[in-house]
Amino acid sequence: MQKIKIGIIGATGYTGLELARILSGHPGVSIEIITSESYTGKKFSEIHPSLRGIVDDTLQSIKDLNKTPVDVVFLALPHGVSMNFVKEHGYDKYKVIDLSGDFRLPDAKVYKQWYGKDHVIPEAIQDAVFGLPELFGEEIKNAHLIANPGCYPTSCILPMAPLVKNNLIDANSLVFDSKSGVTGAGAKAKETTHFPNTNDNFKAYGLFSHRHTPEIQNVISTFSNAAANVLFTPHLLPLDRGILTTAYAVPTTAKSREEYKDCLATFYKNKPFVQVVDTPPAIKEVRGSNFCKLFVDFDERTNRVVTVSVIDNLVKGAAGQAVQNMNLACGLDESTGLMTPPLAP
Amino acid sequence: MQKIKIGIIGATGYTGLELARILSGHPGVSIEIITSESYTGKKFSEIHPSLRGIVDDTLQSIKDLNKTPVDVVFLALPHGVSMNFVKEHGYDKYKVIDLSGDFRLPDAKVYKQWYGKDHVIPEAIQDAVFGLPELFGEEIKNAHLIANPGCYPTSCILPMAPLVKNNLIDANSLVFDSKSGVTGAGAKAKETTHFPNTNDNFKAYGLFSHRHTPEIQNVISTFSNAAANVLFTPHLLPLDRGILTTAYAVPTTAKSREEYKDCLATFYKNKPFVQVVDTPPAIKEVRGSNFCKLFVDFDERTNRVVTVSVIDNLVKGAAGQAVQNMNLACGLDESTGLMTPPLAP
Amino acid sequence: MQKIKIGIIGATGYTGLELARILSGHPGVSIEIITSESYTGKKFSEIHPSLRGIVDDTLQSIKDLNKTPVDVVFLALPHGVSMNFVKEHGYDKYKVIDLSGDFRLPDAKVYKQWYGKDHVIPEAIQDAVFGLPELFGEEIKNAHLIANPGCYPTSCILPMAPLVKNNLIDANSLVFDSKSGVTGAGAKAKETTHFPNTNDNFKAYGLFSHRHTPEIQNVISTFSNAAANVLFTPHLLPLDRGILTTAYAVPTTAKSREEYKDCLATFYKNKPFVQVVDTPPAIKEVRGSNFCKLFVDFDERTNRVVTVSVIDNLVKGAAGQAVQNMNLACGLDESTGLMTPPLAP
Amino acid sequence: MQKIKIGIIGATGYTGLELARILSGHPGVSIEIITSESYTGKKFSEIHPSLRGIVDDTLQSIKDLNKTPVDVVFLALPHGVSMNFVKEHGYDKYKVIDLSGDFRLPDAKVYKQWYGKDHVIPEAIQDAVFGLPELFGEEIKNAHLIANPGCYPTSCILPMAPLVKNNLIDANSLVFDSKSGVTGAGAKAKETTHFPNTNDNFKAYGLFSHRHTPEIQNVISTFSNAAANVLFTPHLLPLDRGILTTAYAVPTTAKSREEYKDCLATFYKNKPFVQVVDTPPAIKEVRGSNFCKLFVDFDERTNRVVTVSVIDNLVKGAAGQAVQNMNLACGLDESTGLMTPPLAP
User: Fold this and answer.
1) Are B49 and B55 in contact (CB under 8 A)?
2) Which one in A86, A199, A299, D207 has a CA-CA gap of 20 to 30 Å to D38?
């Protein structure tokens, strides 16, 4: 079988690293080009020594992409930079999977509201498919531009979208209390990610203003019969990888854990990466893997539904999900190259 | 001035260690006896090498207490054991400050419901004062039996009780999402606290069933005009000390951050250990200290009030608060011996 | 091609877990039986939820091994228990790869001296091959009983054995200062591995008395022209996986970094898992992988050779190396199923 | 008694923070001025929120020092900047305690060799006293310029200087394998201290070239009868505070642990901050305190002496030791304001 030809645009961040790590073991692809404007000419493994002997490709410039035949391009670029790439290169010569936030929101107006800048190619937003395969698998198969979801939204939407869709909860009552590892803040050293500021520490940040809020809200509203306002609070955990989201909702009619669990179990029946489990899952159970574990419970005393979900923010929350999208968009089995077990402990 | 004579009953756990650490620097007390049934005859600092040269007292048996004149006894015992001590020794010869859960709930019936056993001295529950000095300072001054609050309840009640009292929020809408360090689980090695099970990991536990729930609910109901049902979800953080609680409520009339902040600032105006701050506080800002930092905000979009509070679970959540209670009960200034700054980073 | 039939004896520890994790992705094997006497009848993934959906085999008893045709048996048992298994079952029906310390030392006398007990099958010690493939690959190919090396010895021997063999250093001057993650202490909760005793902490232990000492010394002496006494100091790092060993030696004739580096580079030229690198490697660069990175330098001022080596103690230090040994002993390419990249960050 | 008037020059780093934390509880001092050129006009506690309510002084400029009468000035400045301060301000108007490396080495030549720049006030080097109170207490009492030792040197010199002085070990055989927490790298975010690069990680750095090497070597040589070359290898631990140094030496005549232990115990008999202990100490036993714990052992098999020492790098390794020096230089008891117990766990 012919291998799918891959380009990775942006090599120095964590999503670039993870794409390389995952794709290096994928049986159906060949990495044709990895770009970095700041490290052009260096080996990938000089920047990321953990992949020494595995991904030793020389980093090229984005300009070299035109000379390189590729089938799929992953954009591991900051938001704002991605949309410029799409504006310049389009998404007809190859499929584009964008890991930034540039094409995840419903329109340019909402984009401006949360990202504070004008979108440079608003018409592409309509073409973009939100790349959450368990919810939009069919659309992804035919997509040419895929907006890979944010890490937090993946962890928030997966447990709650089926409950909203089946009218088991009041979408407007949703509160997402999310806790993320530090890699979610990127590979660049900042004051907030300085080890002594993070180790043995824990804090909330971005209250009411985090850019993943409209992303969650948009998908939840899609599955609801009316626009929903959801509350999202991110926190920074003293660990590398992983997001755990505890979500709270007021139930509608159903009044037992079984009804909620059945709803999730049915919805995710044939989905290889979503596991509905019977005890609250821990972050480390999915570390390094593309799995998402979901737990749901109902409390009669306070009349609340609570879900707990865990993912690895760099895998199911970013690069793994991007490869899952690529598999679907290229006609491969969804799980090809992605069944690596979690690394625990 | 004559020193207050202290007994510490139970030396091997973290609360015993913290009581010794704090009281060793307290100018108004003298530790007369520290007991441990399992290590009788050993030096305290053999069990806790961090206090070598500081607390080298020989551990005695509880039986030696009768021969030792003391003014205040701290019970650093497991729940169930504390109430037996109180049954046997009473609380008239000396003031008793109990750090277990045995005297925190409103009555023996609720105790049995959440702790699964009969209370051995139900009449003492009525005499016990809930030792949260910022809320019950006057009662504490005259108390003979003080039920030192749980660590989680301290972090949940302090931000929300004033808002409930002033009718600014609907008490029945309260959701407490709490995250605690591992010392909250005690000094004894368990599977859940085995380093590789906790490091780089994060999980929820005790959903709907944690014993601190009725403690929170009882105090919140006291400040509310009606019985309130509150939802409490504890999580285990990969760090040693500290609790951060993110709490969510539906507002009643007030619709601005200022109104909520003013309510808290007024309530805690002359309280030396509660600081109302303008950015969400981090756990490490209070580590090793008796301080509690509170943050409150109002989100117009979702119509929610959110508070973030941090304490050190072993200090303001246990031993420090116990010493604060002792100060009040013995006529000292509330903050005597407790102004040690946090250790950060 | 026919799959190699595998038995894993001992499922509950970290080496059992890692064997299952690695072998689940190995293209040339089929796991026929996994045993656990304490959890017989339960699913493997109930004990190790990270492998849910990947290794869901029902745990059997060791007694079921006789009914199960296998080609290779991995013993993931404590020392003392392994030798009893070998005494009872032998190593002629299938190849045995033992991950305990029972067959690593030169004879029963040394075993008794360091392990404090009589060896139950001393004659098997002579048959056992020390399973360090980069040093004893040829012997391993024909071995029926393989003593998989200890984690510390792997990290100590790989950098220094080539230098000793080539007479570049004085073997008697060797000092190994090793630092290990907590998984090296096993899956069972102990006081020393209680999270608050380990987190943000660091200590030396087992000075002069650690059982890996004679293992290191025996192999170093084999490569030296005379018996060598080596000093080994283990330390406990506040992290899960990985060993870093800093080793010190007095040089003989060579007086430049290049000579030492060339020696290592030549020795490990065609070895897929050993990388000789130009800057001191970090533990995370090999986490989750079977790689070992080696660095060597020479200090003219103090006339010393220093090496720094890193491995993942559970992979190259245990289960990965065991699978590498299996590959060799079964005629497969050494690296089959083992090229999973490290998980970093 | 009149309070000693203090100036802290340099507020934003960890040593500035620790000086403020420690001095805020010191009964014999009053902080007259804290300076920061980058944050002039802000409150100290805005930069360091852990000291909110404790040190709320407004930060001033260095220029304001001339208008402020002080008895002692602490320089919490980077090396290179400190010597310029001393050149400009001298050390006759007030005593100067410098926490940088500018006055620790024997002369300007060695300074240039290791720090790569010319010393601007070489004559002051001769006036400076090396501020290790347990070794140079008498000189410190009369000093006007005190070079506060580096954190690593404190942990290396304390265990080995007495053994060298008493000719129990060969000074030229000394190898110091040191492991430090991340605060040793300063408060500024860097790539090496980015949380995901440090957490769950461990590495050696600065081999043969770390600037603390000549500082250790100089003091060891002072206590030896001949110039000694010592080998020093620093490593970066995934924790905030603390240094553990494992040191190796070849013994001369003494051949028992007792002889070595007696030597240390006698040497440090009346020193309040040095404890000679019987089991290898852990970093957390001294966290947040000015204590140093020392362990020594002798191995007959390999003929080596090994010491293990632990300190908090920010306290006994920096700010605490500086206050100890101030106490001595101002005629106070050495331990005034410094007996705060360690914070463990």
Assistant:
1) no
2) A199
